[in-house]
Design a protein that fits this description.
Blueprint: H1 5-36, H2 41-46, E1 50-53, E2 62-67, E3 70-76, H3 79-87, E4 117-121, E5 132-134, H4 139-142, E6 149-152, E7 157-159, E8 180-184, E9 187-190
Antiparallel strand pairs: 1-9, 2-3, 3-4, 5-6, 6-7, 8-9
Amino acid sequence: MTQEQKPSSTRRRLLVVTSAAGGAATLGAAVPFVSSMLPSEKARAAGAPIEVDISKLQPGELGIFEWRGKPVWILKRTPEMLDSIKQGAAKLADPESSVAQQPDYAKNEFRSIKPEIAIMVGICTHLGCSPKEKTAEEKAEMGADWAGGFYCPCHGSKFDFAGRVYKGVPAPINLEVPPHTFVTENTVVIGDDRKEG
């Protein structure tokens, strides 16, 4: 090996080591940069859509999820709950959902895409309290004609299982139905109503 070859080998090794270190540094810088492009917790709280798996909800069960810092109720309605919605229109302040508290595709009797799945923001439209679910069996507390729904204990507002407000209570309008879409039979995206495909 001549003297001229030794510096050449050393240079090559130095070049390889320097290139490897530069590649590692580039990767190290790229990871935080790419991560910064994902929605932050603050952005998600501000309204980024959330995906919810509803496959484990049993008939009659109410799941509560957070979107935009608000509780979103997903209720798997039973046939009895659906019947109570059909029969209670005379007692309601806005049975046809004339006030825009829901997307157009949920402006129907059940205020939903699928009759058996109710999706609404669980905040009373009076002063922002959180109503509680009250079943049809709670007539002793709610009155003999109570068919089930939601009751706000703060000021006495009542809503049916579609989130429609009763006449004569403090709440002026129906509960909000957030934008949403079903991406599979059991997966719903809250906060995004663009159709797939």
